[in-house]
Design goal:
The chain is 72% helix and 0% strand. It is mainly alpha-helical. It has one domain. The longest helix is centred in the C-terminal third of the chain and has 32 residues. The radius of gyration is 22 Å and the shape is globular. 46% of the residues are buried.
Length: 317
């Protein structure tokens, strides 16, 4: 598998697994756990998983001095993104919150364009617009209920933090650091936020039923360890903007779980929204190969080619 295809595959896996957040978090909320406690155990359990993976690959935990500060900043950005998203679940449906979170590809593209002078291609802009149309169809509630302003602001804060993380993790200072090590330290430094908010764990609430610990482990594994690991790797393969746009699969995943697990209704509007998002993602993945195929198709019709006559620009009568 070539690096570009591998990057797109990793980006898709990252988005799909991150969309599993509501699947494992909502039962914990119903059992009386607060967002800080859920995220505290989510990060706490994910760190040893990544540590074992790091040692299994024969890598060390050493960092250069110039790498420490960027990893601390990235860790806090990820932690704040998680916190804002999980707080929004208290004000709106988790599926809607996960869907609204998809504004972050636009923020990534804007940050890259304004801060790093990255050119936004017509194809990229079109895919973002197409995906946003799909998002508009997905997040609008069937009964016309107004979304919570507080919840919406929390989601926007989560999207901005996550967009900043996606841009920051692709900076040259961290490109020499192994993907697994970056993810390990991002979660380790991110854990500090919840340690402080819970007064070093003394105010953390525990699951009342033993099987809910499985939800915490699943949160640590799928939308945390696997998702962030795949996100970091995808960014290094294909860049920040394509990885962000592949995040369109996240709200699709959230809607699928909402319908199959939580009994939400699958309406024609939701189906159309999902199809628009899938088309947008497919166009991004096709990339240059799509243009190549169109060029090949054009060459099948040579008579349509306009030939320029030498010596004169005036057509003959």
């Amino acid at each position: 598998m070539n690096p570009k295809a591998k990057g797109y595959l990793l980006g898709a896996v990252a988005a799909a697994t991150y969309g599993m957040n509501p699947l494992f978090a909502m039962p914990l909320y119903k059992a009386g756990m607060d967002p800080d406690s859920v995220l505290f155990f989510r990060y706490l359990f994910a760190i040893p998983i990544l540590g074992v993976m790091l040692k299994a690959r024969g890598r060390d935990f050493r960092l250069r001095r110039r790498e420490i500060l960027p990893l601390i900043v990235l860790g806090l950005l990820v932690a704040f993104s998680s916190l804002f998203l999980f707080l929004s679940y208290n004000y709106m449906d988790a599926g809607i919150a996960s869907t609204l979170l998809f504004v972050y590809p636009i923020l990534v593209a804007l940050i890259m364009a304004v801060g790093f002078h990255e050119r936004i291609t017509l194809q990229t802009a079109g895919c973002i617009l197409l995906a946003l149309c799909g998002i508009g169809l997905l997040y609008k509630t069937g009964n016309g209920a107004t979304l919570s302003l507080t919840g919406s602001l929390f989601v926007m804060g989560s999207a901005l933090s996550y967009a900043a993380y996606i841009v920051g993790v692709n900076r040259p200072r961290l490109q020499e650091v192994a993907t697994l090590k970056v993810t390990f330290y991002v979660l380790l430094f991110g854990l500090s936020l919840f340690l402080v908010r819970l007064k070093f764990g003394t105010e953390a609430t525990l699951p009342e039923r033993w099987y809910l610990w499985g939800n915490l482990l699943a949160l640590a594994l799928f939308p945390t360890a696997i998702s962030f690991l795949c996100t970091t790797a995808a960014i290094q393969y294909i860049g920040a903007t394509p990885t962000a746009i592949l995040g369109a699969l996240e709200p699709v995943t959230a809607v699928i779980f909402g319908v199959t697990i939580f009994g939400e209704q699958l309406t024609p509007r939701i189906v159309c929204g999902m199809l628009l998002i899938i088309v947008a993602v497919s166009l991004i993945v096709a990339g240059n190969s799509l243009a190549t195929q169109l060029i090949r198709l054009r060459k099948l019709f040579p008579r349509l080619t306009i030939k320029k006559h030498q010596g004169s620009s005036v057509p003959r009568r």
